[in-house]
Design goal:
Pfam families: PDT (PF00800). It contains seven helices and eleven strands. It is α/β, with parallel strands linked by helices. Strands 1, 2, 3, 4, 5 and 11 form a six-stranded mixed sheet that branches. Strands 8-7-9-6-10 form a five-stranded mixed sheet.
């Protein structure tokens, strides 16, 4: 395994937050060694089958909590990924944007709104928080919103204020959401995605920084197979011989209960 070149599977497509985490962790790997996957389960499968030496998956967000699908895969109730281990972690700041096709004749962020910036109170949320951002363009054309399920909870104040009642459609990643919005030339589709994804797909910014918390960030795990090489750390420390005694390990305990 020591001579095997490092290859990495990550939740794609390119420009996803997981892709950003992968580039941060493996900055010297050529693009041909990075393999985007359509789902988190596919990342686990790529590492388990030794198709790649490592994988990168989202684990939890500081605003919206755990990524449930990743937890389910670690639980591995069907014993499909028995050799998966965590060998590293990365924290990535998450700054969401509302992206899509800008209205015809758009001349810049000069939108006048009569909204006071507060979502409508409900029984479950009698005192809704005010969003941190305001729209940069007219949102009246938007009929469908696409994003990863985690993003809705991270941008609740903005969405509840300016896009209340608009249909929300879950997709596999925020970068996939940008792809879908790009394909809809009518301008009726928008995505909660990243600045990088917007730039890659040539989309306009309908709003920037729409996450509820300024310090919003997501924790990602680096995966490998049991018996494989450890992740090389910036200090140069690596190698299977250190697995039992490495002084910088964190303990991660997972368990399931009957219910």
């Amino acid at each position: 395994m020591a001579d095997e070149p490092e290859t990495v599977a990550f939740l794609g497509p390119k420009a996803s937050y997981t892709h950003q985490a992968t580039l941060t962790t493996f900055p010297t790997l050529p693009a041909s060694h990075l393999h985007p996957q359509p789902t988190i389960a596919d990342v686990f499968t790529a590492v388990q089958s030794a198709t790649t030496t490592h994988g990168v998956v989202p684990f939890e967000n500081s605003t919206n909590g755990s990524v449930v699908s990743t937890l389910d895969l670690f639980a591995d109730l069907r014993a499909q990924h028995p050799d998966i281990l965590v060998c590293g972690e990365i924290y990535v700041p998450v700054r969401h944007c509302l992206v899509g096709h800008l209205p015809p004749g758009w001349a810049g962020p000069q939108i006048t709104t009569h909204d006071d910036g507060t979502a409508t109170p409900t029984r479950s949320a009698p005192h809704p928080s005010r969003p941190r951002a305001t729209p940069l363009a007219d949102l009246s054309r938007v009929k469908k919103l696409y994003s990863h399920p985690q993003a809705w909870g991270q941008c609740n104040a903005f969405l509840a204020t300016y896009l209340k009642g608009v249909e929300r459609i879950d997709v596999s990643s925020t970068s996939r959401a940008a792809e879908i919005a790009k394909a809809d030339g009518s301008g009726e589709s928008a995505a909660v995605s990243s600045e990088i994804a917007a730039g890659m797909h040539g989309l306009g910014f309908l709003a920037r920084g729409i996450q509820d918390a300024e310090d919003n960030e997501t924790r990602f795990f680096v995966l490998r197979r049991a018996g494989g090489d450890l992740l090389t750390h910036p200090s140069g420390e690596a190698g299977g011989a250190q697995e039992a005694t490495h002084p910088k390990w964190k303990t991660l305990v997972g368990f399931t209960v009957d219910h």
